[in-house]
Design goal:
The chain is α/β, with parallel strands linked by helices. 34% of the residues lie in helices and 20% in strands. It contains 5 helices and 5 strands, in the order βααβαβαββα. α3 packs parallel to α4. It is globular and about 45 Å long.
Length: 151
């Protein structure tokens, strides 16, 4: 009998659909589709089934997190983009979840403008990965897979 894959959701916020085009000197030249494809290939051997969601709209992301509340998900990896620094609504929605949450950023937000140093999610996230470009997504996937497989 095969073991059921554990469901992890990947959420990407505003402007991340423009990766590879938008400020490549900061965010790199890899597209979000390429990141998702690479993650999908790495997930199955880890016993993970990934679901992907991206929106430029805060409310759509909050609605999606509400949907996750009623699903049997084991973790969330989220790159909230600019919502990191402003969204109490996103924070409150994530507080509904009882699974591990990894906050990710392509750039090191602490080496950038001072308004980017404050994350509304850092203190509720299980962990945070920033500054490693698109490799950070793989780091987050490995970390969350280890976390859920240990429990």
């Amino acid at each position: 009998m095969s073991q059921e894959l554990k469901k992890i959701k990947i959420i990407n916020g505003p402007n991340l659909n423009m990766l590879g085009k938008r400020e490549p000197e900061i965010y790199g030249s890899v597209t979000l589709d390429q990141i998702n494809s690479d993650l999908d290939k790495k997930a199955k051997p880890l016993g993970i089934d990934l679901g992907f969601f991206q929106s430029n709209h805060e409310g759509a992301i909050v609605d999606k997190i509400h949907e996750f509340f009623n699903e049997n998900i084991k973790g969330v990896i989220i790159n909230p983009g600019a919502l990191t620094h402003t969204s109490v609504a996103l924070r409150d929605a994530l507080l509904l979840l009882s699974c591990p949450i990894v906050e990710i950023h392509l750039s090191n937000i602490y080496k950038r403008e001072s308004f980017r140093h404050k994350s509304m999610l850092a203190d509720i996230a299980t962990g945070q990965v920033c500054g490693f470009g698109h490799y950070g997504y793989q780091m987050a996937l490995n970390a969350i897979a280890n976390r859920i497989n240990e429990s």
